[in-house]
Design brief:
It contains eleven helices and two strands. By secondary structure, the chain is mainly α. It has two domains: about 80 residues, Cytochrome c-like domain (Cytochrome Bc1 Complex, Chain D, domain 2); about 120 residues, Cytochrome Bc1 Complex, Chain D, domain 2. A two-stranded antiparallel ribbon has the order 1-2. Strand 1 and strand 2 form a beta hairpin. The mean pLDDT is about 85. Its EC number is 7.1.1.8.
């Protein structure tokens, strides 16, 4: 008894008891909870892939191939990831109505649940950009001024200074960004749809993407009440300078002609 009491009073006794309790709890949890949860998640994912494959066979395989390998009518989808599917199908660009220089945005024909299933199937063909969560694309707390700098550096060449869009070569164009959801803006930067370059996290971190989204939303919200007066299409200093050159210089020339004509009349009289 004395030896047992001495062991109980040992400084490490409490630590040993705690470790044994944690080991027992972890063992019980591993034996019951995770297996069931993991199995349920795996089953749900398998069902989503299976349903997505059915939708793909009906709406996508004719252009992208039965296994997503691509055809002469559509590129390979192996490795594009779920984010590309969510963007292309979620904005109505896919399935495409007809071939052309660029596929336009249109009304979606799939529900979000069906889009998620299609995305799950395409993602199973090869690893690629994953559909972002709300915490990734939400502009809450983002730096709008920094987003403006990033946008003017990386995006304004095609979308112009306030996201109005613009013409490109061979019938292509940069679309207007007004009304585009933060999720789709983030996915477009992730995946680089059609003529747009991609900006993965290694090139443009998540924080910078959120800053750009905040800027786009801010300038779109202010278009109805531009602090500078007429927005002139939101094209920036080029259109503003052209406006000043044509109308401002034109007015000065008109005034100069009027002064010269009246001066000549005064001399004759």
């Amino acid at each position: 008894m004395k030896k047992l009491s001495a062991r109980r009073r040992h400084p490490l006794a409490a630590v040993v008891v705690l470790l044994l309790a944690l080991a027992a709890t972890g063992g019980l949890y591993a034996a019951f909870a995770p297996a069931g949860t993991a199995k349920a998640d795996e089953t749900a994912q398998s069902l989503a892939i299976e349903e997505g494959k059915k939708l793909y066979s009906v709406g996508c395989a004719s252009c992208h191939g039965t296994g997503g390998q691509g055809t002469s009518d559509g590129p390979s989808l192996v490795g594009v990831g779920s984010a590309a599917v969510d963007f292309q199908v979620g904005t109505g660009r896919m399935p495409a109505q007809q071939p052309g220089a660029q596929v336009p945005k249109k009304k979606t024909i799939y529900s979000q649940a069906e889009i998620d299933q299609l995305a799950a199937y395409v993602a199973s063909l090869g690893a690629g950009p994953i559909t972002p969560t709300e915490s990734q694309y939400s502009p809450d707390g983002a730096d709008i001024a920094k987003g403006g700098e990033l946008f003017r550096t990386n995006c304004a060449q095609c979308h112009n200074f306030t996201g109005e869009g613009g013409a490109l070569t061979y019938g292509k164009y940069a679309p207007n960004l007004e009304g585009v959801s933060p999720k789709h803006l983030y996915e477009a930067m992730q995946t680089g749809p059609q003529n747009m370059p991609s900006f993965p996290d290694t090139t443009m971190p998540e924080k910078e993407k959120k800053d750009i989204i905040a800027y786009v939303q801010a300038v779109n919200g202010e278009k109805a009440d531009s602090p500078g007066g007429l927005s002139l299409g939101g094209l920036g200093p080029v259109s503003e300078g052209l406006f000043a050159w044509v109308f401002g210089l034109g007015a000065l020339i008109a005034v100069a002609v009027w002064v010269a004509a009246h001066t000549a009349k005064a001399k004759k009289s």
